[in-house]
Amino acid sequence: MENTVRIGIVGCGMVARYHAKAIAETPNAMLVGACSKSLSSTRTFCSEFPQVRAYNSYDEMLAEHDINTVAVCSPTGNHYEQAKRALEAHKHVVVEKPICITLRQADDLIRFADEESLSLCVISQTRFSDSATIIKQAIDNGELGRPISASLMMRYMRTQAYYDQADWRGTYAYDGGGVLMNQGIHGIDLLCYFMGKPQSVTGYAKTMLRSIEAEDTAVAAIEFENQSVAVIDATVCSQPPFPKRFILCGEKGTIILEDDAITLWNLPTPCPIEMKASAGGSSSADPKGITHIYHAREYRNIVRHLLNGEALLIDGHQGRIPLSVILGVYESSKTGRKVLL
Prior knowledge:
Elements lengths: L4 E6 L3 H11 L4 E7 L3 H10 L4 E2 L3 H5 L6 E4 L6 H10 L3 E4 L7 H13 L4 E3 L7 H11 L6 E9 L4 H5 L20 H11 L2 E9 L10 E8 L4 E7 L9 E6 L2 E6 L2 E6 L26 H16 L7 H20 L3 E2 L1
Parallel strand pairs: 1-2, 1-4, 2-3, 4-5, 5-6, 7-10
Antiparallel strand pairs: 7-11, 8-9, 8-14, 9-10, 11-12, 12-13
Helix pairs in contact: 1-9, 4-5, 5-10, 8-10
């Protein structure tokens, strides 16, 4: 027990399966329990991972002393309540993106975890790709020079059938928003990881083609504390879909990242990994078109943090940053004004 992070998952949908595979590949971690709002879905999930016990309810799983960490893999609208209850049960928490749907909720979770000396970890697995790691190191080492500007293009395709499969998708109450909150938050997280702390945002969020409550299309402009700027272009209505694309410009050159592939490295220093002409597989057309490998890398960081005190790369404070940008875009779109972050 003392040398193992023993995890229970709440929510047994597609995302939970990425977590389960990642945990299975993480030393000193074990997935021991699962629950969801439907006992049948819990049992189906546990049949795929036979070592995992199916709990009848979340209350039952939280009462299990054998579990010291809870992974929240439910729809976004449930994140706050379920994460708070896990913290109150004195469990560490790993929560899928986004951390929750309001900044007040995020701040409450962060405060409570800090007060109880518990760890609150947020999944932003794209930071753990080889390319993202290399780019971040280059920026921190000054190889890009002073950050000047960036663009983030996220042109996805999600059909109406995708939203009709689950009534929570595309709603503010349970999905937290549309293309920015669901698909786009990973790109926005990486953008801020590369460019720095966001200071203000102006944007538009619109529902153009999909019959959903939240936005299917959005654009935004961000200013960072270091005075650099960035633009965001996002939609789930693109025909065809394109790989997620970053262009990062600094005083010494430019980097282009397409999904997980560096396609341009125009810096005085050589790129330390192989560049590619274009990105390979992408989630722009298929939400299942991702790998669990980066989840596994993040879980290794989480487990080493819990057992050995290694610095946690993505805690609640880090998870709050992309949420603040997205909510800022929503507010700006409603008011027509720049929103200070």
